[in-house]
Amino acid sequence: MLFLAGIAAGTMNSVVGSGGLVTFPTLLAFGYSPLVANMTNNMGSMPGALSGAYVFRHEMKGQWPRIIRLSVMTFIGGLVGALLLLVLPEVAFKRIVPVLIAVALVLIVIQPRLKVRAARREVNTRRGKIAGDISIFLTGIYGGYFGAAQGILLMSILGAMFDETIQKLNSVKIMLAVSANTAAAIVFIFHGGVAWKAAGVISVGSFFGGIVGAHIGRRLPSGVYRGFIVLVGLIAIAKLLYS
């Protein structure tokens, strides 16, 4: 079951994100505490993100300066989020998660209009870069703390920041998710408490799922891709509210 959940999560993460909404409750069903499940889910999802990034390597051409700059922001945010997970109650943050996802979905829907407006103004001004860095940093905190649906938040922000195809934005999103997960993994490894056997099983599944999801994501038309993101986001909101 964990292996199949890992495949599903890896596939979803490469296409849009929210794979943690599959593996996290699966770990809870096996009796792991929410904290251990969260840390284990983070470790298990890493191979899927890396395999997905490899498939999307062609879409990353010409984007490495922005990928590196924004990855630094998500890495720092991931460290902060992981530390917050260890010291703060989980309930407070989970209450805001559905709201964040809902806002992200609105941004995804109006993304074409945002791209037109962005093209009409100087989006690469110093102020615009600072605002973008802060937004990405906050998603890094979210990714290090909880992680599920981080991809939806990243896609909405990246779509407002850059006039690129949705496939190119997704390639950046995958790298930023890798950065946040890596930062959180460092904290969790030093803290201890990761269920390594479960994480290993999930990681194998997520590795293959990441490859499958990336191939699907590269071939989806932008409109279909955007609709799929919204659908997954709505399911994520319903699942979190029901939980």
What report would you give on this structure?
It is a single chain. This protein has helices spanning 2-15, 20-29, 34-55, 64-87, 90-109, 111-120, 126-145, 150-161, 166-191, 196-219, 222-242. By secondary structure, the chain is an all-alpha fold. The protein has one domain. The longest helix has 26 residues, at 166-191. It is globular and about 45 Å long.
Keywords:
243 residues, mainly alpha, 84% helix, globular
Concise account of the structure shown:
With 243 residues, the protein is mainly alpha-helical. Helices cover 84% and strands 0% of the residues. The protein is globular.
Count of all domains: 1
Count up the helices. 11
Unreliable residue stretches: none
Shape: globular
The percent range for helix content is over 70%
Structural class: mainly alpha
Number of strands: 0
In percent terms, what proportion of residues is strand?
under 5%
Oligomer: single chain
* Rg from Cα: 16 Å
Distance between the termini: 20 Å
Element string (H = helix, E = strand): HHHHHHHHHHH
Q: If you average the pLDDT, what whole number results?
A: 82
The description of the largest β-sheet is: none
Layout of helices and strands:
Blueprint: H1 2-15, H2 20-29, H3 34-55, H4 64-87, H5 90-109, H6 111-120, H7 126-145, H8 150-161, H9 166-191, H10 196-219, H11 222-242
Helix pairs in contact: 1-2, 1-3, 1-10, 2-3, 3-9, 3-10, 4-7, 4-9, 5-8, 5-11, 6-8, 7-8, 7-9, 8-9
